[in-house]
Design brief:
There is one protein chain. The protein is of the alpha/beta class. It has 6 helices and 11 strands.
Length: about 250
């Protein structure tokens, strides 16, 4: 299945993107959310890597994720810190809340997990409908080349129990028309030199042009668009930037 984050994938994510790790996104989002007193939503909350620093800063954040395994890690990390944010298993396509949010934040390119442009447009409108008047949507995309990761790679991590987790990744398809890549991700857990379990995931990502995303946001109804390169707020993206952040609002 695509982009499911099962048991081993979630374990690897939790080891690799541990609480306290930042790519510059945590500091940026904390700065952009200063003075935000209303509720904040983080879709695709993962293990809580971004959520927990926001909560520690006193912000009122809740989150959802499609993966129950990911939510398990997030809930455990929150419980260790005596935090009790509202967390739920929901998807981009079908999430629903009665309340409306002052901000919706999606760091680290999670929006690119939506592989279809039409679906992404519907989801962006769904975010808009869940914002308060004047509420902000802030999210990152990675503008990397479709062919940036064509070579296979193998990575490994030691688990808390001393076992070995490995991830073998191989890009198998780049669709220039759909602007998507598909990679095969094979996760393996090794205990005392023996393979204990494995998972195979088909990982699909969509690559957006900056102007394409800007047009899509405006068509969905967003206003006051600010596009920033490499977490330098207001600085127009340039060639070589590793991340581009979009910030826009629902009309008052």
């Amino acid at each position: 299945m695509n982009n499911t984050y099962g048991k081993l994938a979630s374990h690897v994510y939790n080891l690799d993107k541990y609480i306290g790790k930042s790519f510059g996104d945590v500091e940026y989002y904390l700065e952009r959310l200063k003075g935000c007193s209303g509720p904040i939503l983080e879709p695709a909350v993962g293990n809580g890597r971004a959520l927990i620093p926001l909560l520690e800063a006193g912000l009122d954040v809740r989150g959802f994720d499609a993966s129950q395994d990911m939510l398990g890690y997030c809930q455990a990390h929150c419980a260790e810190r005596s935090m009790t944010p509202a967390l739920s298993q929901q998807t981009f396509e079908a999430f629903a809340y009665e309340e409306r949010f002052e901000a919706i934040v999606i760091p680290a390119g999670s929006l690119q997990l939506i592989a279809d442009h039409a679906t992404a447009t519907v989801i962006l409108k769904r975010f808009l409908d869940h914002l308060q008047p004047g509420g902000r949507l802030i999210f990152d995309i990675y503008p990397h080349d479709l062919f940036a990761h064509v070579q296979p790679s193998i990575r490994n991590w030691q688990t808390e129990a001393g076992d070995l987790l490995t991830l073998t990744s191989q890009q198998v398809k780049a669709d220039l028309i759909a602007q998507t890549t598909v990679s095969h991700l094979r996760y393996e857990l090794w205990c005392e030199g023996k393979l204990a379990s494995s998972e195979l995931e088909f990982f699909t990502m969509r690559w957006w042009g900056i102007e394409e995303m800007a047009l899509t946001l405006r068509a969905a109804g967003y206003v006051d668009l600010v596009i920033s390169g490499n977490y330098d707020c207001g600085r127009a993206p340039k060639d070589g930037d590793e991340v581009v952040t979009f910030e826009c609002r629902r009309t008052l």
